[in-house]
Hints:
The chain is mostly helical.
Amino acid sequence: xxxxxxxxxxxxxxxxxxxxxxxxxxxxxxxxxxxxxxxxxxxxxxxxxxxxxxxxxxxxxxxxxxxxxxxxxxx
Length: 75
């Protein structure tokens, strides 16, 4: 998403899809990856852990932190 030019902070007139894209573009790669794998690809924690070569507990914790970072972007 580096090719997209988003404002530092969207004001009015943006759709939910645009706001979601903006918030995702502001996250670091690991957080963005966790959210995309879990929500877009509908992967289970075990699958994410195997793909990222970590434990399920680590995958769950990383997902929790990614959600927090995403929420902060939208706040």
